[in-house]
Amino acid sequence: MTTKRLHPRVRVVWVLRAVLAAAVLTAPVAGGFYFGYLPGWAPLVVGAILLALGVVHALLRYRRWSYEIREDALYLDRGVITQVRTTVPLVRIQHVDSRRGPVERGVGLASCVVYTAGSRGADVRIPGLTPDGASDLREELKRLAIRADGEDAV
Amino acid sequence: MKLAPQSIPYRALQKVAGVVVVLFFVVNDSEWGFPAAAGATGAVLLVAGAYEVAYYRRFEYELTEDTLDIRSGVISRREREIPYRRIQNVDVSRSVIQRAIGVAAVDLETAGGSSTEGSIRFVTPEEATRLQREVQRRKSAGSAADDGDAAGEDRGPVEEELFAISPRELALVGALSFDGRLIGLLAFAGSGSVPVVSGYLPDVSTLALSAVAVAAVGALFLVSWGIGAAVSFSNYYGFRLARAGDELRYERGLFRRYSGSIPTEKVQTLTVSDNPAKRALGYATLSIETAGYAPGQGGEYGSEAAIPIARSGRVYELAREIESFGDPSFRRPPRRIRWRYAFRYALLLAVLVGVAFAVDWYVAADIPWYAPAALLLAVPPAAHLKWKHRGYWLGEDHLVTRNGFWSRSVRIVPYYRIQNVIDSRSVFQRRWSVATVVADTAGTSSLTGSDAAAVDFDVEEAVDLQSELAGRLQEALRDRRSEVGSFEWFEGDGETDGEGDADAEAPDESPDIPDEGVVRSDFSASTRDYSEPAERVDTGGYAVDRFPSDADVAHRPDGEESSTDAVDDDGDGIDGGDDADGGSAEVGGDAAEDAADDSDGSGEAETDESQER
């Protein structure tokens, strides 16, 4: 089975998110400038650095992200700073959602969330899918989970 | 069944006591004086009492065939049915006052949700115990054989004591527990006040200042220790753990008595933990974790159903009795990783020295800020110890991990409890090309991030471990399934949501034709399982279920030979491919494994196909 990648447009969502985060984090610095505690270049520099970091992180994140549906498990590989590889046995899937947030709807994407009874990796989100892809993936995971026939998870 | 009547005044007072007292004093001080105050508090009490009477009248619980039904609610009404099989723990607690008036609170935990699912406040202690026993009896009756009722009844009361805390051990628990919360609180409150305080003490000599500081810290530790000792003494007073059939029961508490039951089949993780003091004395702690919420006192501690302290030999013996995991021999991380720990500790020391220097500079005191550097000598042994106490071991049915050299914990996770496996590598770990593999379970303490983890193993080993764990989970599931299947074959009743029923009965009954001479499918309540994948699932245009899969080809003829009933039992009568599980339950044993393999194979093939689309 092939390793699948996310839709390239997911970068838009992540970059937007990075912009938003940068804006929020820069706000106090801008406030400092407004009240005269800090020189004028401070918010600009901080904002630029945060934005650059956020954008680079978003792009790297896209490069890292991949997922794969194997014979009996869903396998995800992601994470820039801490690389995380998760194996979700299909038997353990409790339920599957496909969902579309406002930004995702804006760029015509959707994501799929897989829930297990575990506590740490209780919900695994696969972003960057086309709306059809997300519902197909949901159906496929559902089908595979049913086929895998888990006994009581807990 | 109703609550205990004395719960009405108790509940009313419990809810409004605080309000009433405040109200009384506030109104009493106002211009209207005592009569108004008495009137107001009386009115509040009356309203509360009326509400509680209504609550009492509405609240009803009932033990039915396979669920516990609770009807409650005065304003918004709720009816809840909790299947016995889904109940994780049943806990009973009684505070001092509750004991005095003879009531007890019963909490039933299931794995769903974050709060207690069934909370019965309050019943008499006898009723509480009866509920506890009855739930267990019905649960085991449900999952065991037909004659399970009688057997359950016989076996129910037989309690075999596993552990009872001795006064010596209780004293040890007290002595060894240290409540860090006070220190944390003071440190938090104090962190902001250092500059303020220093402003008031400009002239005091350094010596006096450090003397006071040392004395204060000493007193703080003593007080913390005292609090910790008192808390754990009252918590674990009279602790005992017993085994009754397939259930563990515990009891503890000095002021507030707790008792609870933990079904052994619901145990997620066992943790044996110790620290240097306990190790030196040869003691350890065992905690038992289920997916229900923490028994006893909310989520703070994770599982409270723990053996607070016992000889480590005894602890392992008990742990093996609950989960027979054998004798672990741990695999350690690569030796080079000790450098990583050494660097880490050195870095920590550098930060410490830096902070000390900053304080010294800020307060303008002449304290020896470089003193922490002396700890540098301790770094190599610490790094070595940390490495030495890490490890994992793959047992026959269990993953055992060990971590931490100060507070060391050994976690025992049965493979079939693994929910997912996570391999993570931080930036720093990547530099050493090592990884951490976490086996996530549904247990509660993993919420606090203390999952079973194999930390800092070689990348290749981590990858192997991850796939090995996933593989062993599949294997364990397969084993359990065939076990359940063959079990049902003979006993005719299943714990798999009745899914086995139809399949298991079929071969048994079909050969002999019923009295009226008509073979009909069994439409009794439990035979139709709606979770069975037999229904057409909308696969969104995938071709998968349109064609019968290998699994079906393998078992269908067999099923038809052995029973005329089997086809009907399937109910749907459609080509299947849907029926991999029914198939395995039906044929049992080796054939089940084949079928499962086949279905896996076919699943793979189909996914391939679907991906090509």
UniProtKB/TrEMBL annotation, chain A:
Q: Fetch the Pfam families from UniProt.
A: bPH_2 (PF03703)
What does the UniProt keyword field contain?
A: Membrane, Transmembrane, Transmembrane helix
Instruction: Report domain YdbS-like PH positions.
Output: 62-140
- Protein name per the record: YdbS-like PH domain-containing protein
InterPro entries attached here?
YdbS-like_PH
Species whose genome carries this gene: Halorubrum cibi
Q: Does the keyword Ligase apply?
A: no
Q: Which domain of life is it from?
A: Archaea
Q: Which chain regions cross the lipid bilayer? A: 12-35, 41-60
Please tell me whether the keyword Oxidoreductase is annotated for this protein.
no
From TrEMBL, chain B:
Domain of life of the organism in this record? Archaea
Spans of biased composition, class Basic and acidic residues? 529-538, 547-559
Q: Does the keyword Mitochondrion apply?
A: no
User: Has the keyword Glycosyltransferase been applied to this entry?
Assistant: no
Region spans: Disordered: 133-154, 484-613
Q: Name one Pfam family in it.
A: bPH_2
Q: Where is the composition biased (Acidic residues)?
A: 490-515, 560-581, 591-613
Q: Which InterPro entries match?
A: YdbS-like_PH
Alphabetized UniProt keyword annotations: Membrane, Transmembrane, Transmembrane helix
Q: Which parts pass through the membrane? A: 12-28, 34-54, 182-201, 207-233, 341-363
YdbS-like PH domain location: 56-134, 236-305, 387-467
| Family annotation (PANTHER family) | TRANSMEMBRANE PROTEIN-RELATED, UPF0699 TRANSMEMBRANE PROTEIN YDBS
This chain's protein is named: Putative membrane protein
Source species = Halorubrum cibi
